[in-house]
Write a structure and sequence with these properties.
It is built from 1 helix and 8 strands, in the order αββββββββ. It is mainly beta.
Length: 177
């Protein structure tokens, strides 16, 4: 809970800084990004009964050919969730389409895509792996200062054996082409 509050305060501070900054928010071209945030994993009792809010991270490569659209490939690690002595690790690779609203100074965007995920679950007597591909979607706000930028995002993942899989993150962006 303390981790969620810290991430929330950090996100609020970044949002205020992004909205008050005189920045250029219409960058186009290729970019790379890295983000750190609060990842939430909840698996029901019928699956494995582990849950938690963990520190997660993600990396992405994208291309933004026009100021209103982008395509992005990403790797997301949700961290490790515990249920007593049981634990589960989940990660995903995703392909997303991003749509941007034409707002001055900041990028407001939505994203939708497909995430291929894998969960490795372990207990003292049993281990199993599940994988699949399901829908993912999110919203974000960002800005850039020349070739560098910052993003604040919230994403949800429809992992078929989990009741809740989401990530709120704060990241940096580097436009390299």
């Amino acid at each position: 809970m303390r981790q969620m509050r810290a991430v929330g305060c950090l996100m609020a501070a970044l949002s205020a800084a992004l909205l008050g900054a005189a920045a250029r928010a219409d960058d186009t071209g290729a970019y790379a990004s890295a983000a750190l945030g609060a990842a939430q994993e909840n698996f029901g009792a019928s699956t494995f009964d582990v849950r938690g809010t963990n520190t997660g991270y993600k990396f992405a490569l994208g291309v933004r050919p026009l100021s209103v659209i982008a395509a992005e490939a990403s790797y997301i690690d949700f961290g490790r969730s515990y249920g007593g002595i049981n634990y589960a690790d989940t990660y995903a690779e995703g392909l997303f389409a991003l749509g941007f609203l034409p707002v001055p100074l900041v990028d407001l965007y939505g994203k939708v895509g497909l995430a291929e995920w894998r969960t490795n679950a372990h207990s003292p007597t049993l281990s199993f792996h599940r994988d699949g591909a399901d829908a993912a979607y999110g919203v974000g706000v960002g800005t850039s200062f020349g070739r560098f930028g910052a993003r604040l995002e919230y994403e949800r993942y429809q992992v078929s054996h989990a009741s809740d899989m989401a990530m709120a993150s704060l990241g940096v962006v580097w436009f390299f082409l």
